[in-house]
């Protein structure tokens, strides 16, 4: 991910067990998991609504674990109780951006291309100001061109784009993935 790797955090066994043992789609159960998560890590009550950077990493790791256990209900609950840009993408983080489902890809590129947001992403992905200016005046959906062009030269993952959008202070757009 742009030369930086997220710091991994080992989830407590009690949280792993909770995620694996609680039936899917049970709202109270996902709330119990979050409470266990907060207790196991000795987090404050406000830590989910206003997480510190280290807490964000822990929440992201919990969301990754939940996804690996097919606990979409937990991931969606975490998204409901944490700020945008905290849980990571709903899609597989290693998925190539070019393999994203069409509707999500379209929503992502349209959201970025509606204003100048795409320029922040393009710059972070290594496009020069000359390239950005060229695309700005000639292309209807410049973020599509940027993602396609970069994706042709190297692996461009959903997780990398998610993290880049969060770094660009575009967490709501990141959460479209």
Automatic annotation (TrEMBL):
One Gene Ontology term from the biological process aspect of the record: signal transduction
CDD domains attached to this UniProt entry: Death
Entries under SUPFAM superfamilies matching the protein: DEATH domain
Superkingdom as given in the UniProt entry: Eukaryota
InterPro entries for the chain: DEATH-like_dom_sf, Death_dom
Domain Death: from-to ranges: 115-177
Protein name per Swiss-Prot or TrEMBL: Death domain-containing protein
Lineage: Eukaryota, Metazoa, Cnidaria, Anthozoa, Hexacorallia
């Amino acid at each position: 991910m742009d030369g930086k790797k997220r710091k991994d955090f080992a989830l407590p066994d009690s949280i792993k067990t909770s995620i694996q043992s609680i039936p899917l789609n049970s709202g109270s159960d996902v709330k119990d998991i979050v409470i266990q998560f907060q207790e196991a890590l000795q987090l404050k009550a406000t830590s989910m609504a206003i997480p510190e950077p280290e807490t964000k990493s822990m929440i992201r790791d919990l969301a990754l674990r939940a996804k690996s256990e097919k606990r979409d209900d937990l991931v969606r609950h975490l998204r409901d109780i944490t700020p945008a840009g905290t849980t990571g993408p709903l899609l597989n983080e290693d998925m190539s951006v070019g393999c994203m489902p069409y509707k999500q890809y379209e929503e992502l590129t349209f959201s970025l291309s509606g204003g100048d947001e795409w320029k922040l992403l393009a710059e972070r992905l290594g496009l020069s100001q000359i390239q950005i200016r060229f695309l700005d005046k000639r292309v209807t959906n410049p973020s599509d061109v940027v993602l396609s062009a970069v994706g042709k030269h190297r692996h461009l993952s959903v997780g990398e784009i998610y993290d880049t959008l969060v770094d660009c202070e575009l967490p709501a757009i990141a959460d479209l993935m």
